[in-house]
C-alpha cells in the first residue's frame, strides 16, 4: 500500500526563493558534488527575467525541479553560469532537471516538461535545447531531443564545462504535438 504522502496530489508551480534549500538537497541526492551548483547561482538564475523554472511539490515537500529559461538556439549556459536574458528568444533552454531518488518512477519529470513545452509553443518558440550529462542522452532521445553540433568556439568551451561526455541536444516541436 502506498504511503499516505504518495496519495496526495502533486502540484506544479513556479520555482520560488523559498524552494532553494530543498532544490539543493535534491540536486545533491541526484548528482553528488560533481555537478552541484550553489544556492547563490540558483538565486541569481531565479532573479533573471528569462527564467521559467518549475517545481513539483506534494504536501509541501519539493519532489522535483526543472531549471529553465528562454534563450537562443546554439547558446549553452556553462556549469555554474547565469541565465542571460535575450531580446528575442527562440528556444526553451532546459538547464537542469532532477527528481529526488525517493520519488523516481512517478513520471514527475513529465509533469515539469509538458507545461513548459506548451508554454513555448504558445509563445511561438518551436524548439527546446539542453546539455545532456551523466549518460542521459537516451533519456532525452525518448523525449524527442537529438544531438546538435555546435559551431562557435565559445559555445564549445561552455559545453566542455560539463565534462567530456556532455552533448548539446535539441528538440523541434511538431505542430499540434508536444
Structural features, described:
The longest helix has 15 residues, at 108-122. The mean pLDDT is 91. This protein is an alpha+beta fold and 178 residues long. It has helices at 4-7, 20-31, 39-47, 108-122, 137-142, 153-160; strands spanning 10-14, 54-58, 61-71, 91-99, 127-132, 146-147, 167-172. It contains six helices and seven strands, in the order H-E-H-H-E-E-E-H-E-H-E-H-E.
List the defining traits of the structure above.
178 residues; single chain; 6 helices; alpha+beta
SSE inventory with pairings:
Layout: H1 4-7, E1 10-14, H2 20-31, H3 39-47, E2 54-58, E3 61-71, E4 91-99, H4 108-122, E5 127-132, H5 137-142, E6 146-147, H6 153-160, E7 167-172
Amino acid at each position: 500500500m502506498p504511503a499516505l504522502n504518495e496519495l496526495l496530489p502533486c502540484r506544479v508551480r513556479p520555482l520560488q526563493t523559498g524552494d532553494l534549500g530543498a532544490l539543493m538537497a535534491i540536486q545533491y541526492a541526484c548528482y553528488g558534488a560533481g555537478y552541484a551548483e550553489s544556492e547563490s547561482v540558483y538565486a541569481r538564475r531565479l532573479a533573471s527575467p528569462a527564467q521559467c523554472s518549475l517545481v513539483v511539490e506534494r504536501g509541501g515537500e519539493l519532489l522535483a525541479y526543472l531549471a529553465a529559461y528562454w534563450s537562443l538556439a546554439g547558446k549553452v549556459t556553462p556549469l555554474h553560469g547565469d541565465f542571460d536574458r535575450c531580446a528575442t528568444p527562440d528556444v526553451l533552454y532546459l538547464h537542469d532537471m532532477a527528481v529526488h531518488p525517493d520519488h523516481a518512477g512517478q513520471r514527475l519529470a513529465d509533469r515539469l516538461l509538458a507545461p513548459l513545452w506548451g508554454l513555448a509553443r504558445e509563445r511561438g518558440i518551436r524548439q527546446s535545447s539542453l546539455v545532456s550529462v551523466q549518460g542521459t542522452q537516451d533519456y532525452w532521445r525518448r523525449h524527442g531531443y537529438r544531438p546538435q553540433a555546435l559551431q562557435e568556439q565559445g559555445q564549445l568551451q561552455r559545453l566542455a564545462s560539463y565534462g567530456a561526455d556532455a552533448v548539446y541536444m535539441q528538440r523541434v516541436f511538431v505542430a499540434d504535438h508536444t
